[in-house]
Amino acid sequence: LVDELAGKGASSSTLTATSPHTEVAVIMGSDSDLPVLKPCFQLLDRFAISYQARITSAHRTPDWLREFAKSAHANGFKVIIAAAGGAAHLPGMAASWTTLPVIGVPVKATHLDGLDSLWSMTQMPRGEPVATVGINNGMNAALLAARILAVGDLRVEKCLREFAEANETEVLAKDAELLR
Ligand code: RP5
């Protein structure tokens, strides 16, 4: 399913096995969050960053979330991306059980249009930070994870530079097109 969402037949992701080489854990509160994470999977695939996607809910599977987050560092993950809608306590709870950086993706899932999720992630009380991206912005979560990894990985740093250069080229081309 994750491979389908990422738009490819086979990727470095897996819904089952944990590899010591898998760098990013992408957790979500429900399979209904998957569409928001599609750009996240695509960006991680584009940068050839290994990831594992899992469904774990802070309120429906609290024991499983605790087990996953507590063992994430020992299992070789370097960053956790956590997407959730509504009260969105998933990234905050995960942050409390790991020293890994946790990136929250607020999901628009209720009548509050994602503001509930955004505020609950950004308003984490002092002591347990969650780096929160914009509502439904799975791509920025992947880019932020890449920036964290790039501190110690020149290959990923090169991917980020090339990504920025491609964006610049695209905007300049559109600007030139307007002048014609
Ligand atoms: C949250 O509640 C999930 O992260 C999701 O965004 C939202 C709705 O979940 P479902 O009712 O679609 O399973 O826990």
Characterize the structure shown.
This protein is α/β, with parallel strands linked by helices and 180 residues long. The protein has a single domain (2-153), classed as Rossmann fold, CATH 3.40.50. The chain has seven helices and five strands, in the order H-E-H-E-H-E-H-E-H-E-H-H. It has helices at residues 2-6, 34-46, 62-72, 90-96, 115-122, 138-150, 154-179; strands at residues 24-28, 51-55, 79-85, 102-107, 131-132. The protein has a five-stranded parallel beta sheet with strand order 2-1-3-4-5, with helices on both faces. Helix 2 (34-46) links the parallel strand 1 (24-28) and strand 2. Helix 6 packs across helix 7 (154-179). The protein is globular, with a radius of gyration of 17 Å. It starts with a helix and ends with a helix. Residues 9-20 have low confidence and may be disordered. The structure holds 5-O-phosphono-beta-D-ribofuranose. 5-O-phosphono-beta-D-ribofuranose (RP5) binds at residues 29-30, 32-33, 57, 84-86, 107, 109. It comes from Lepidopterella palustris CBS 459.81. In the C-terminal section; belongs to the AIR carboxylase family. Class I subfamily. This is Phosphoribosylaminoimidazole carboxylase.
